[in-house]
């Protein structure tokens, strides 16, 4: 479905063209702001990772002091080494952190630069 607003054509996706709009230009602006649904889903997954206090605590510590070992993270976060390792496994699978081996010690650092602004916002 096409809407005209200020001489521009705005398109509503076919799967939503049957829905009535009160202010067509606002609907089009909202659709444009939402953008790519895959990008929205990726950001929702980031927020989901941050929604658990233990993971958020670890990410804040890694962002500030990383690269940092599991043992040091456990001490800083007040968590067991096992709980830290489990959380890091999830964060690593999600591509948010990555390990760096230094001999027998593995240290973690943030690997997703998109998460840094969220962590900064969490501390202000």
UniProtKB/TrEMBL annotation:
PROSITE patterns: HTH_ARSR_2
Keyword Transcription included in the entry's annotation: yes
GO function term, MF aspect, one: DNA binding
SMART domains per record: HTH_ARSR
SUPFAM superfamilies: Winged helix' DNA-binding domain
Database matches in CDD domains: HTH_ARSR (cd00090)
Residues passing through the membrane, by range: none
Keywords: DNA-binding, Transcription, Transcription regulation
Keyword presence, Protein biosynthesis: no
Domain HTH arsR-type: 35-124
Top-rank taxon: Bacteria
NCBIfam families assigned: HTH_metalloreg
Protein name, UniProt field: DNA-binding transcriptional regulator, ArsR family
The organism of origin for this protein: Thermomonospora echinospora
């Amino acid at each position: 479905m096409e809407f005209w607003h200020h001489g521009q054509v705005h398109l509503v996706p076919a799967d939503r063209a049957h829905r009535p709009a009160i202010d067509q230009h606002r609907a089009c602006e909202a659709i444009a702001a939402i953008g790519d649904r895959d990008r929205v889903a990726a950001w929702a997954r980031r927020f989901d990772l941050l929604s658990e206090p233990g993971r958020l605590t670890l990410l804040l510590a890694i962002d500030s002091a990383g690269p940092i070992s599991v043992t040091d993270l456990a001490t800083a976060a007040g968590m067991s080494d096992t709980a830290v390792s489990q959380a890091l496994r999830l964060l690593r699978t999600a591509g948010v952190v990555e390990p760096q081996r230094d001999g027998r010690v593995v240290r973690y650092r943030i690997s997703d630069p998109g998460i840094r602004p969220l962590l900064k916002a969490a501390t202000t």
